[in-house]
Amino acid sequence: MARKSSPDDLLAPLTLAVGQEDLLLDRAVREVIVAARAADADTDVRDLAPGVLQPGTLAELTSPSLFAERKVVIVRDAHDLGADTIKDVKAYLDAPAEEITLVLLHAGGAKGKALLDAARKAGAREVACPKMTKPADRLAFVRSEFRTLGRSATPEATQTLVDAIGSDLRELASAAAQLVADVEGTIDEAVVTRYYTGRAEATGFEVADFAVTGRTAEALERLRWALSVGQPLPGITFALASGVRAIGKLASAPRGANPGQLARDLGMPPWKIDRVRQQMRGWTGDGVSAALRAVAEADAAVKGGSADPAYALEKAVVAVARAARDRS
């Protein structure tokens, strides 16, 4: 496999996704899986954390099958693999199995560099998944999202969206997709402002702030006010989802970490780290999951899945507030 695989060859024997941007890593994996299942609907997908891939495991997963089935084997955090397992992977790269696509996710730093070099030498199809720390990179990302979704947005609209959402690529991608789904024609600054900044941001995010701190009555009051003045309903579900996801992300971060480092790792401004820390008291992992499900149901309702989207939003607000108070 010494010949370099084409970037467009999603079924290349080896795909190497390099970087630390979770959204881009997940997309790189998803593209391969979609292509494999398009070629064979019965493709077997094995998604492995480093601790799961022990010496001998890869050989077992890639051994010939009686049914010659297509298989995708995904190895996450490949930079954390042990020395013996790295030997197994290198040996496999010398003679990859037919009908099998190996996907290695690697942070790209010095740790595990020998495996990174070996994969490149073997001709891996490489996908860059870098953290986007520069504002210009985030602007380019949003422009690309709109192009991929088949829509155009003015430069002012793109800048306004980045200013309103921040550096979290998942949030930016979600916001771009939501605008494309809800708005016809070219997306301009006025539309983005209406959905995500100024008055819209204040009401939607005020509802979310009250809900994630368990203040049901205040959250419902702000929600009803937002509805009465015609705030876009998807903007409110977006704010609720953003609030809950921020709590989930911070809850899973290392305890005692420096706020500045957390801000860089989680894509939040430092002031938001302090704010979310105050909001997350009373939350549990199960509560975050339940709240996200409730918000997802409300989002589907406001996009045409319910005859009474306002009621669906009220249910979501109550569910989020209840989850915030669940200390069990």
Describe this structure in words.
With 328 residues, this protein is α/β, with parallel strands linked by helices. Helix 5 (135-148) runs parallel beside helix 7 (169-182). It is globular, with a radius of gyration of 22 Å. The chain has helices at residues 22-39, 57-61, 83-94, 113-121, 135-148, 155-165, 169-182, 189-196, 198-212, 216-228, 233-251, 259-266, 270-279, 285-305, 309-324, and strands spanning 14-19, 44-48, 71-75, 100-106, 125-129.
Descriptive keywords:
328 residues, alpha/beta, five-stranded parallel beta sheet, single chain
Query: What is the H-and-E element order?
Result: EHEHEHEHEHHHHHHHHHHH
Main sheet specs: 5 strands, parallel
Beta-strand content bin: 5-15%
Strand order of the largest sheet: 2-3-4-1-5
The percent range for helix content is 55-70%
Q: Helix and strand layout, with pairings?
A:
Layout lengths: L13 E6 L2 H18 L4 E5 L8 H5 L9 E5 L7 H12 L5 E7 L6 H9 L3 E5 L5 H14 L6 H11 L3 H14 L6 H8 L1 H15 L3 H13 L4 H19 L7 H8 L3 H10 L5 H21 L3 H16 L4
Parallel strand pairs: 1-4, 1-5, 2-3, 3-4
Task: Give a brief rundown of this model.
The chain has 328 residues and is α/β, with parallel strands linked by helices.
